[in-house]
Amino acid sequence: MNKKIEKVFENDLSQIDNIYLVFSSEEYLLDKFENKFKEKFVDKEIEDFNLTYIKEEDNVFKNIVNKGSTLPVMSQKRFIIVKAGNIFKKSIPNFDAFEKFLKDIPDSTVILILVNDDLSNNKRKDIIKEQGEVINYSPPRFQDINKWIKLQFRDRGKKINYRGIRLLEKMFNNNLQQLDSEIDKICTYIDEKNKVEVSDIKAVMSKDRRLKENTIFEFLDAISKKEKNKSLYYFHQLLENGEVPQIIFAMITRRVRLMLITKDLKQQGIKHKKIANKLGVHPYPIKKIYGYVDNYSAEELEKMLDKFLEADVKLKTGEDKIENSIQNAIISI
Predict the structure, then answer these.
(1) pLDDT above 80 (res 322)
(2) Considering the domain 211-331, what is its CATH architecture?
(3) Which of 223, 229, 247, 272 is most buried, judging by how many CB atoms fall within 10 Å of its CB?
């Protein structure tokens, strides 16, 4: 763990600073820090009285000043957690009032500002450095990932050998959020066992993969059957399961192309087995598609393909995020 962060959690409530700014390229790390900070310092029994979240960028500094002047209820400290994007952009007003407030901040007020951005070269952060703590919570580098994985298992009361660590590292690289999720699943799977074996990891991974594959088939079938709501539901399920959006995009366009070809050949009186043979595709998906294409005219399928190709162009030219491109194309079916 980052040494500055370790130092924060070595303090007790009476020793913590009045303001912390933590910035990171990994939102997962910010969430972890926030949860640990609340667990360590915020009394859950009176949290409703002494913890305020500020999440709106508009008037963020004005809100910090207003809320920061309120005294705590039955506690030494009152906490403000700010999660409003990069609030240190020059375009956000009232920074001067915030700077003035910091010079006379009440001893009972603790402000935690979390920013999912790189503030290394942002001079405004230096104002906070004069009054509190600024922490760059950078994710572990590739050579440190194995230590991080080992630590996550240790924190859950489990041991893992080098082969297991290397397998997880190879499968998920340094995607910390996905790694953390998989580690949770593995620890749940082995239950009271203390040592994680490679076979345990493979068992969990193969089970997850089967579930993901089922979701993919359900998703493609929902699109083929013009079920927009189901399509959107399965699309978001795939994203939550860690599927890469570009792969989802490729699968959709492949399915629509198969539907177009199958539609044309079906109209010529060719049966699904011969179509599968002709295309070099397994008969099972073609058999399903053979029934689905009756839901569409050839013109509708061409229009659908155009929508996804248009979404692809928007993605490649930077006009839209891939998740939005796919979602908007599904809605337009």
Answers:
(1) no
(2) Up-down Bundle (1.20)
(3) 223
